[in-house]
Automatic annotation (TrEMBL):
Gene Ontology terms describing biological process: lipopolysaccharide transport
Annotated transmembrane regions: 12-33, 280-298, 304-321, 333-355
Bilayer topology term: Multi-pass membrane protein
Subcellular location: Cell membrane
UniProt superkingdom: Bacteria
PANTHER family according to UniProt: SLR0882 PROTEIN-RELATED, YJGP_YJGQ FAMILY PERMEASE
Protein name (Swiss-Prot/TrEMBL): Permease YjgP/YjgQ family protein
GO cellular component: ATP-binding cassette (ABC) transporter complex
Main location: membrane
UniProt KW keywords: Cell membrane, Membrane, Transmembrane, Transmembrane helix
InterPro entries on file: LptG/LptF_permease
Amino acid sequence: MKLLYRHIFRQFMTSFLFASIAFAALFTLITMVENLDEFFDRGIGISGIVWYYLLALPSTFQITAPVAALLASILTAGRLSASSELAAIRSAGVGMSQLMRPYVLGGLLISGINLLNASFLEPAAAKEKISFEKQVLNETRSGLHEGTNIHVIEPENRIVTIESFDAKHLQASKVTVEQFNGSRLISRKDASRMVFDPAIDRWIMQKAAIRSFGADPGEISFSTGNDTLNLLLSIQSLQELSLQPEEMNLMQHYRYVKEKMQAGFPGLDRARVKLHAKTALPLASLVIIFIGVPLSTVKKRSGLAAEIAIALFIGFLFLGMQKTVASLGYNGIIEPWIAAWLPIILFLGAGALLYKKAAS
């Protein structure tokens, strides 16, 4: 039995490796054809182009891994079925659950690698890739970064507005702090510059104009001078405001979403969907195997080309569904966790039905 498992596992992983390389080469070739003229127009050499597309590989492998796993499972199980090996295995008393073991082991290995990729390698590569685009291609991306108004809702009815933030030098400009009592404004502080003082772990609002408003409309007091400010957002979170979600590792992304939700930041749906997707998408390679193997255990007259076509159709159907449902989550139509996990749940249900049918 161990020899059989090793044989199936080796065939499955070999097929997955070749499929992943083929998809990566195809995706790279397509994007390279689109962008090659721009690279040469900007005087970027071959080494720069190669480096740019190497940085895109972790993301490409992450996206295409479910399709590659499905294709590998269909081809491996299909070969066993076509050569009558599967019939001999089943007649020897090997059940469907036993037959699935090497595929599940391979799926767990692929999902584990994908999870590490999504958590660490892909964000690091994305950060370098975006930096390359900014410095060499002069491209910018939308999001919270230096020069964008930042609004933080603090505890005890306090609102902090920062017009621009320099993450490198830990300083901000045009800062406003408004303190409310219910709906009534009781104080406002304005400073053209704010710097962080690590000695006291506080922000210093330099030459702040401080206004206090009494209960009567005309009761206003005014003073100037430096003032300290303790923000709910940590220094690390403020430094990460210039990062896109795809540039953050899993822990950074979790902390980013958690602290920004606590600080009252609006429009976090996209970041929350991407956070859930970092754990959901790696598991797709395992889930989709439960569709591929049962689908190929029935001996068919169709050849290799038909099996590849079926695998590609189902695989890209999953990717299309994942993109469509994610866009619903980005726009707040459905909950972020549902947007990330719904395609996985639906395909897991389809796999369970196919598995039950193949096992009977």
